[in-house]
């Protein structure tokens, strides 16, 4: 698309600097600057800290047994506290 725009002197200087740095034409420099400014902003990488917690304290090869043991322990706790 062909159009006419009026640039402030400081903006023109920035475009000219971009032209010199990258060896671009005026049109290419303006398009590059507009794409950078109007494009989708880069998302900040999500980081979750990790912690060494040691090995498991129960055997994990029998998941149903582990679940039953946890349920039994909770039932014993409730009976002991009267809840």
From TrEMBL:
Highest taxon above the source species: Bacteria
Name assigned to this protein: Antitoxin
Organism in which the protein naturally occurs: Prauserella flavalba
Phylogenetic classification of the source organism: Bacteria, Bacillati, Actinomycetota, Actinomycetes, Pseudonocardiales
């Amino acid at each position: 698309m062909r159009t006419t725009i009026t640039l402030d002197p400081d903006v023109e200087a920035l475009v000219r600097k971009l032209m010199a740095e990258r060896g671009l034409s005026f049109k290419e420099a303006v398009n590059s600057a507009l794409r950078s400014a109007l494009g989708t902003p880069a998302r900040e990488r999500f980081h979750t800290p990790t912690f060494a917690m040691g090995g498991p304290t129960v055997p994990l090869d029998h998941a149903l047994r582990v679940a039953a043991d946890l349920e039994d322990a909770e039932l014993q706790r409730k009976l002991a506290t009267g809840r």
